[in-house]
Amino acid sequence: MARHALDPTSEIYRLRHSLAHVLAQAVLEIRPNAKLGFGPPIEHGFYYDFDLEAPLTPEDFPDLEKRMRRIINSGQTFEREEVGAEEMSTRLEESRQSYKVEQVQDLAAQGEALTLYRNGPFWDLCEGPHVLNTKEIPGNCFALDTLAGAYWKGSEQNTMLQRVYGLAFESKLELRDFQEKRRLALERDHRKLNTQQHYFVIEEEVGKGLPLWMPNGTVIRDELEKLAKEWEFLGGYQRVATPHITKENLYHTSGHLPYYADSMFPPMEVDGEKLYLKPMNCPHHHMIYKAVPRSYRDLPVRFAEYGTCYRYEQSGELAGLLRVRALTMNDAHIYCTPEQVKEEFIRVMRLHIDYYNLFGLQNFWMRLSLAEEDTTKFVDDPEVWPQAEALVMEAMDEVEIPYEAVRGEAAFYGPKIDFQVSNVVGREETASTNQLDLVMAGRFELTYKGAVGQDHTPMIIHRAPLGTHERFCAFLIEHYGGAFPTWLAPVQVRIIPVAPTFSEYAHQLRGELHRDFLRIEVDDSHDSFGKKIRNGATAKIPNLLIVGGEEQSNQAVTWQRYGSKARETVAFTEFQSRILEENRNRADWRNV
RNA sequence: GCUGGCAUAGCUCAACUGGUAGAGCGGCUGAUUUGUAAUCAGCAGGUUACGGGUUCGAGUCCCCUUGCCAGCUCCA
After folding, report:
1. Which of these, A435, A383, A400, lies nearest to A414 by C-alpha position?
2. Are A330 and A483 in contact (CB under 8 A)?
3. Are A572 and A556 in contact, with CB atoms under 8 Å apart?
């Protein structure tokens, strides 16, 4: 799957790139002292970073857009010019573009030939390409979108510039289309749906990033846990349970304190000891492994736990359920021999695929995160890394799922495979992470006895196919748009009597299905029948049962699915067996 | 954490350039007893996020705090 592959030779690339220059020109008209940062084309348009004495506000957009159109209509020609590094620096210094001067130094160090593009009064250090003339840009194909801060060269150490985002497409129609799609996608945002469905609540009194799970959200958590427990049981996992706080020393052993301390809550002091809230479950599982002598005959050992962890995320990174400070992971650690590790890794990959098929997720891809030379972020062991990376890549090839490799994003103890999904607004999220870890076993002195009695170090796989409850539930809410399949729905069946006379019959059915462990309710309100139908639909309940005189006399129900006008009247016992089977099979009624 | 924006009833939103806070939905009460997307009526809900300032007067202007949103950085 080609991702974010912006093709510099394409029409739209030149269009967006040129619009970035036009924007910069317009900004310089109203802010002559603005210093320019970067201004590239991006997925849905372009942006340009500015260092401004007074910040722009959204109120400036209409004026800027007007100026941009005027520039476009004036028919400026884009001219390319090759300029030596020294000459380029001089010219940029003359126009007091200090960021660009810095950029010239970086580029010159790499020995690149430098080019600039000039259109009208504006010129910019830039490698192009651009349209030939601004007249090629349809005046109504773009719109300034949002303002944001962005660090110069993307580093927190640098000054923050102001970034202006613009949308741009080849035609007005495509622009409108995108804006409409985005508006619709926003309707599926889990935070938006949450105001209607009440899955969770984050209260200021409790703390930011600390969600409280309401009954509806807890149903989804519980059902996911049931699923995981069943499949992990079948996969040969054993369940374990571990505490939320732990003595400091365990995290020195694991290496979390040097490498991960920024993401941990500060410790609490008790009886002269420091205790930390756990940011990960692995050290505890390693201790369980270590508590009993292990033989090669025992391996692989697979410990699974839905473990709750606490991570100190920076406040600005928190977002609904997608980024929180208290999270419960679908965690497990697999301890195995070098001979077993590839097979185990492949089984983990296959488990992912099974889950994703169950949820009907097609739009996902894998990202392989590898270490880089910067050893401050990674456990430094030159022998172990290439070995681990090669092993992972072999396994990935074997399951035949395409992946993209990224340097420098590994976990500090090993290469990482992330399953990336894209949420409804197109933002990429990591749904789950898996790691091959050739480091921890050594640090924890984990061993197993080999066939001839000598000690060996096991290999460890960290895996969390369902990620965390928080992120996965958020993702599922958006994926299903709040209309869950029967097995996940907070209310699975609602019975609507056409008149109060049939309420007793409705309750009789409710009692029976309740004993079958279905989440079921009767709409006893004083609303009109039409209103009850409407309420059932807006509540996105997957199954509505309508009962009246006809149904009662035949011991039947009229069954209607969410989002469908179709309905069928069936014997109650038939409904009962069909809905129970659907629930048991975790089938999605959209596919039935 | 950083940059910018936002904050009015449970939800969605009103209140012209400062002149004593309103509606719909939802909730409650009563009437209505309904066969596929809103039955009718009445009632109750707000120290306009918190604290301070300017003013005869602040939801509206200014400052602070908190929270939320977008993006950056970071990440499951």
Report:
1. A435
2. no
3. yes
Specify the residue for token string 């949308």.
A167
**Cβ neighbours of residue A450 closer than 8 Å, sequence gap 6 or more:** A296, A456
Tell me the CA distances in angstroms from A146 to A45, A59, A64, A164, A531, one per residue in order: 12, 11, 13, 6, 40
Query: ∠ at Cα A536 (A532, A540), nearest 5°?
Result: 165
Q: Classify domain A2-180 at the CATH class level.
A: alpha beta
Distance from CA(A538) to C1'(B25), angstroms, rounded: 13
Q: Which residues contact A108 (CB under 8 A, 6 or more apart)?
A: A85, A114
Beta bridge partners of A369: A406, A416
Distance A59 CA to B54 C1' (A): 26
Strand B atom within 7 Å of A563 CB: yes
A587-A588-A592 Cα angle (round to 5)? 85
A114-119 β-sheet, strand order = A78-83, A114-119, A122-125
**pLDDT tens by residue, A48-83:** 999 988 888 888 888 899 999 999 999 999 999 988
Determine if the peptide bond prior to A300 is cis (ω within 30°).
Answer: yes
- The residues of A between 56 and 95 with beta carbon within 7 Å of nucleic strand B are 57-58
Q: Do A444 and A286 touch, CB atoms closer than 8 A?
A: yes
Please report which helix (H) or strand (E) contains residue A530, including its range.
Answer: helix A529-538
Residue range A9-62, pLDDT digits in tens? 888 999 999 999 999 999 999 888 899 999 999 988 999 999 988 888 888 888
β-pair type (A238-239, A301-310): parallel
Strands A160-168 and A45-51 come out as antiparallel
Q: How far is the CA of A282 from the C1' of B8 (A)?
A: 48
Q: How far in angstroms lies nucleotide B43's C1' from the CA of residue A189?
A: 35
The angle at the Cα of A213, spanning A586 to A240, to the nearest 5 degrees, equals 70
Separation of alpha carbons A224 and A330, rounded Å: 9
Determine if strand B comes within 7 Å of the CB of A533. yes
**A225-258+273-308+329-471 maps to which CATH number?**
3.30.930.10
Q: What is the CATH number of domain A493-591?
A: 3.40.50.800
Is the pLDDT assigned to residue A375 strictly greater than 60?
Answer: no
E strand residue ranges, A215-354: 238-239, 245-247, 268-270, 273-277, 301-310, 326-336
Please give residues of chain A from 458 to 497 whose alpha-adjacent beta carbon (CB) lies under 7 Å from any atom of strand B.
464, 467-468, 470-471
* Domain map (residue ranges) of chain A: 2-180, 225-258+273-308+329-471, 493-591
**Whole-angstrom Cα Rg for chain A:** 29
pLDDT grade for A363, boundaries at 50, 70 and 90: confident
